[in-house]
Structure formats: structure tokens, C-alpha cells
Amino acid sequence: MTPRSTRRGFASRPADPDAWVRAPEPTAPREPAEDFSARLTIDVTPALRGRIKVAAFRRDQTVAEMLRALLDREFPMDGEGAA
Fold first, then answer.
1. How far is Cα 45 from Cα 52, in angstroms, rounded to an integer?
2. What pLDDT, on a 0 to 100 scale, did the predictor assign at position 31?
3. Which residue, 39, 31, 30, is CA-closest to 64?
4. For residue 44, which of 60, 36, 55, 29 has the smallest C-alpha distance?
5. Are 81 and 75 in contact (CB under 8 A)?
6. Residue 5 has what DSSP assignment?
7. What's the number of domains the chain is made of?
8. Residue 50: inside a domain, yes or no?
9. In angstroms, rounded to a whole number, what is the distance separating the alpha carbons of residues 70 and 81?
10. Strand, helix or coil at 54?
11. Rg (alpha carbons) of the chain, rounded to whole number
């Protein structure tokens, strides 16, 4: 009988399966602005939502990226945005 290898395989079983299941997913590196983000929910008509999505697609952006840029332009950090 050959002795069992002590070398771990590609995927070894966790020592504590319950803790492993409850552990948060490892996160990918994010941009600093994303660390302090908050969700904003607004109600828009289906027609406006469609126009926003089409505009974002034409600009090769996501809706979130496009709206973040719009909000940054309207509400700059120095407080001198549109009234």
C-alpha cells in the first residue's frame, strides 16, 4: 500500500464548511470612489428610461457610468454647479 500524499490538490475541502459558506465573497480591487458609493433610486417613465439606455449604449457606456458623469457635472465638489 502506498502512503497517502500530503500535497493538497487544486480544490481541498474547507476545515470548517459552515464558516466557509458564511464567509463573504472575495472582492476584486475597486476604484476608490466605489468604496464610498451609495445607491440612489429614482422613478422615471418607461419612455425616459428607454432614452437613457439608448444614449448610454450610443456612448459605449453603462447607464450608471453615464449618470454618474452627469451628476458630477451638475454637482461639482466645489459647489459651483448649475442652480
1. 11
2. 60
3. 39
4. 55
5. yes
6. P
7. 1
8. yes
9. 11
10. helix
11. 24
Residue 51, domain member (yes or no): yes
Q: What is the pLDDT of residue 80?
A: 62
pLDDT, averaged in runs of 10, over the chain (83 residues): 64 74 66 69 93 93 93 85 54
Question: How many angstroms separate the CA atoms of 14 and 61, rounded?
Answer: 40
| Whole-Å CA distances, 57 to 18, 39, 42, 44, 54 | 43, 21, 20, 18, 5
Q: Whose grid coordinates read 451628476?
A: 71
Range of the domain at 53: 44-77
Question: Does residue 73 form part of some domain?
Answer: yes
C-alpha cell of residue 17:
464548511
The verdict on residue 70 lying in a domain is yes
